Here is the input.
Amino acid sequence: MNRLAQAVWERRPQTVTRIVDAHAHAGPYSVFFIPDPDPAGMLRVMDRCGVAHAVLSSHLAIQLDAAAGNAATAAIVDQAPDRFSGYLTVNPWQDPEGELARWGDDPRFAGIKIHPDLHDYPLTGARYAPVWEFAAASRFPVLTHTYSGSPYNDLHHVDEVAARHPGVTVLAGHSGVTPLGIDQAIEVAKRHERVILEVCGSYNSGADIVRMVREVGQDRVVYGSDFPFIDLRMSLGRILFSQLTEEERAAVLGGTVTGLLGGRGA
Amino acid sequence: MSEDLPVLIDADAMLGRHPRRDVGGGTAAELLAAMDRVGVSGALVTNMTSWLHDPARGNRGLLGLVAGEPRLSPCWVLLPDTCGEIGAGFAEAAVAAGVRAVRAFPADHGYDLAGPDVAPVLDALSSVRLPLLVDAGQAGWPVVEAVARAHPRLRIVVGGAGYRMLRQIAGVLDRAQNVYVGLADLSSHRGLEWLVERFGAGRFVFGTGAPYRDPAEAVTRLLWSELDDAQVAAIGGGNLRRLIGQEVRAA
Here is the structure.
């Protein structure tokens, strides 16, 4: 058993490597009850496990109001700037250019978050044009929700925007979610070197993550949890007990995303 | 594992291939290797054939699959006996065969778990004190509660709770003392701690959902929880031993 898995079994926080969660949120979400969804509850879980940093977008930003939600994200980063950095959420129906102008230079933000499924708008749609323009200029990575079979953010949508914008780093959130989606995400990542596979979701497994790393490389796969939407430990455990090498595991858990953020945030 | 570490017994594992996901060959050897990778000592196992092809054949075949595997204990799948598929003495036959629990797939097998067709089988399970395992997606929480009320001596373990159901789970656990929750995909942020604080560790049973789910999820969720060691030990294996009234074999 590797040293990280040993820490789990010994019920103590891991201290082996710097873990950065590339896909986090914060706050309540109307569809279901989340215990302790605020930063204090999130830090409690991070400390329990030894997770150093999380890059987050507030649930308010993705679910209801990008402007108010981005302000909420910035306020959360203010509470613990060494532990959190923000994704600037762009809702295609809520003034994308205005949000990018308002927060684009703010050091509390390290990337852009888009969620086509929640906003009933395709990843390939023209309303996202300011996102790609801004990301190409700023080098901010763009984290998009993906789900195999979705009319808005299927893997073929990722394929299309990656081809259109080869200079933009696209984090494929959830890597398509389903077993089929994971296969499709790997294929898209093979075609586009700046598509990065982010691994949180309800159906991923350690074996899938090993396959991702073997197929596209440890510098193309990043840990995310989706917490507090889903508990942080679900996705983390898959990586800790997987059959990755120690070097690969460290890259997936934090090294790769730290490089992608280019000194911002994490 | 050291004697100081908790013993984890998986109440939610299966043998066999899966038609919609590469889970390997689904052999006992593969399951045992997966258990060793994450530190699980023993498991109650259901035959994928019982779920996704022929329950009676799968139940019979399961006994052969676990024979000679002291870490694996059999869990059969029930049906209503309206078509004579499982026989009137199903519960007694299960006990005689060494079966430790019985699982239901009402959605996938086309019957109502709270209806009259399966009620005699559930009564029989109550009589022989075999717990019932059912995934939340197979029955739904209102059905689970109705079954618990209609069969108050039946112990029901609901698995596959996901992360969207705490509003319903909390209500059912409050009203139905014979309902327990499995850990496979119990994935609300701090949900396990929140539930244990309200209902006690005795209402939760370790399970992984292997091989469809990665067993590392449930192991990490439980061992890296904020629960104390006694609570982890109870959930990890103690509660299951109590539910089945006998020892589950472990490494």
Q: What stands out?
A: Residues 246-260 of chain A form the longest helix (15 residues). The CA atoms of residues 19 and 52 of chain A lie 5 Å apart. Chain A has one domain: 16-260.
